[in-house]
């Protein structure tokens, strides 16, 4: 522990403006806002090794915000958090318990606090900056002999960007452009060449990653109901719907039960297409199968004058950046009153990241003239991961999304 870390423990009460003054003094003197307890320990004990965990001042504050704090004290705490962020504190560093500052607040039942909100907002800002940084990466043309691309980005951008890479049902939120990891959960080409196996309650890859699991049944029902909302306004409406990603066919079976006029299914994986054939989906008169990735097949529909009352998106081994590209197509394919929905697993392996992505997706959709609303669904603790390589769901509440054009 250093003096900075001690300050963040609020040992002396009340917590007055003096705390802010002292914090600023430390930071101005050159102590980094991200100075960790581990670094302080190693420094004191002459250990040269780089620590692997990062318990930052923000962690300590979150661990010590007084539960009996007065309004004035909590204002001071909130100002201290703002100051730390101004000086470059990170929202997603993890401590020895693999917890971010936001995780600590959740554990302390402080998810509704101002501090938690500040952390989520910092996360949204960091993700937006990270995207800019990635956009600004330039690949310097390699000479004939030397084919290694060089990354160019400003130092400040690199410092401010957060490194968070989070798995969601095989979808990473961001792709590491230099990654050579050919994990099927991360790389679509590898995934499409990976054998899949249908089990009773799951569709899994040969390396035991869960592509789809039957615990999502109710979430699929919510998704299906959203796609048919237009029918509530006009029972005579000839419903044309599109589902991207067949998986176990759970939502597609529900869609069929609602007897749509036309039901498009987009799916690229050969083993899943085989299943579609075996189960007679090709014979259904109102079903159109688009064999291939949505990036190719759904984009083609733009020139064919097909418009949808409902579009659902639930793929595997894709990234949030893919979803951003999909939004380009959604605005072109959705009827004016149409509804777009998706499996909302964005960042769902860590609750605070789930909250960050809830806000981020809202911001991104608003850039397209689309508005999103969420219905909260409480989920029990899932005990379904025994035979699955990694869990992609770790949150107590599912935010079911419904997206439509903004009302003008
Ligand atoms: C999570 S499952 C879908 C589950 C489905 N919602 C259900 O109710 O069973 C994901 C599916 O998306 C498919 N997929 C992956 N990438 C895709 C892409 N680029 N375009 C279309 N489908 C894709 C996968 O092959 C897989 O069948």
In short, what is this structure?
This protein has helices at 3-7, 17-28, 37-44, 57-64, 71-86, 101-107, 114-135, 155-160, 188-192, 217-227, 229-233, 250-257, 270-278, 294-301, 320-333, 351-366, and strands at residues 138-139, 151-152, 167-168, 171-172, 196-198, 202-205, 210-213, 240-244, 262-267, 287-291, 308-313, 334-342, 370-378, 397-405.
The largest sheet, given as strand count, sense and whether it forms a barrel, is: 5 strands, parallel
Q: Uncertain regions: pLDDT < 50 for 5+ in a row? A: 139-168, 170-179
The outline comes out as: elongated
Spatial order of the strands in the main sheet? 10-9-8-11-12
Estimate what percentage of residues fall within beta strands.
Answer: 15-25%
Assign a percent range to the helix content. 25-40%
Give me the CATH superfamily of the largest domain. Answer: Vaccinia Virus protein VP39
Give an overview of the whole structure.
The chain has helices spanning about 5, 15-30, 35-45, 55-65, 70-85, 100-105, 115-135, 155-160, 190, 215-225, 230-235, 250-255, 270-280, 295-300, 320-335, 350-365; strands spanning about 140, 150, 165-170, 170, 195-200, 200-205, 210-215, 240-245, 260-265, 285-290, 310-315, 335-340, 370-380, 395-405. The chain has about 400 residues and is of the alpha/beta class. The chain has two domains: about 5-130, Ankyrin repeat-containing domain (Serine Threonine Protein Phosphatase 5, Tetratricopeptide repeat, Alpha Horseshoe); about 195-405, Vaccinia Virus protein VP39 (Rossmann fold, 3-Layer(aba) Sandwich). The strands form five sheets. A five-stranded parallel sheet has the order 10-9-8-11-12, with helices on both faces. Helix 4 runs parallel beside helix 6 (about 100-105), helix 7 (about 115-135) packs across helix 16 and helix 10 (about 215-225) crosses helix 12. The chain is elongated, with a radius of gyration of 24 Å. S-adenosylmethionine binds near residues 211, 250, 269, 272 and 295. S-adenosylmethionine binds near residues 212, 245, 247 and 295.
